[in-house]
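dumping this here so i dont lose it again. seq + smiles for flavin mononucleotide
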Amino acid sequence: MSRHDGTYDIASSYEDNYQKGPFIQEAPPQRVISPTHTFLGFAVNSRLGVPAGPLLNANWILAYASLGFDLLVYKTVRTVATPSHPHPNCIFLETKGLIKEQDFGNRLLATTKQPSVIDEISITNSFGMPSRDPKMWQEDIQKAKRGLGKGQVLIVSVVGTPDQGNLANDYAKGASLAVDAGADIIEINLSCPNVVGGEGSVFTDPIFSSTISKAVKQAIGSVPLIIKIGYVRDTTKLAEVVKANAPHIDAISSLNTLSFEVVNADGSSALPGRLRSGICGSVIRGCAIEQAKRVVVLRQKEKYDFVIIGVGGVMTTDHIRQFLNCEIDAVMSATGAMWNPHLAYQYWQEGK
Ligand SMILES: Cc1cc2nc3c(=O)[nH]c(=O)nc-3n(C[C@H](O)[C@H](O)[C@H](O)COP(=O)(O)O)c2cc1C
């Protein structure tokens, strides 16, 4: 291995990673496979994917497709070109073990030292959802779509930008542009500042989030729609959000990063200028499984028919099984897939 083990080089800028990545040392052998599962109406080879984030463009999508990830989410795009937050964008967490409810509000310690064991890797990240101009990402999405193999689907993640007028309309516009470019499925990232409710992120606001999902569904018609939500600590609130969105959506992807203050040993911000950022990787798996299970319970109770995608802390093949054993329909790994790009292949081999 070279100076970094991850396929995304956290010591380099977002732009360098966009242009030169992914940094994959060795591709695993080919899988012998045929589409045996169904995901949102598509015949797919497996129920495993990479969520919005690590797959920055078509080169990344196609590299991970060839590594055996079959549900591929193109990193969140916008209707307007937006730069990334300055480098550094990611740093490891010193914390080991799973984050629990009582840890919320505590500051976490960062480290530049990469844990040696995959199961101990957690990071914080802050990119600000950068995006190319729509014309550029539309061309790139076409390239990604053309290169995918049989039994693989391209999901495009979209977010609205508050200063582009009506936020719901901007989400809908972005989603339509992604469908025009060839997206099989649209995901909307609802972890976006709440410009209407004023507090927190859109995904905690049942009315505003469902205004957005409704507008997007109207714009994309029969193309399946996934909403990506973050952690909702209050179960009653989670039930309200799910209930309000259920009529407009085909799937829920749970969950996004958890928001924490992350500091260096001397108390300074680990990511300069951004005391608070999103943590992901191993430490969030407990919260991720807990919330996904809560959504499963709501689906059973209310007889919803949406698909549930479990995301958060999936580092090993055991973790994939942990999610699937909870009646979750599909599983995605971001941090795990960045430091263990052979995860999908390992999972396939174990199931042979
Ligand atoms: C490098 C990186 C970039 C990310 N960017 C996005 C993004 O653009 N949109 C989004 O919805 N989630 C984004 N995420 C969040 C992931 O999709 C995922 O919800 C989160 O990382 C938890 O999964 P994990 O523990 O497997 O990393 C990003 C995560 C990482 C690690």
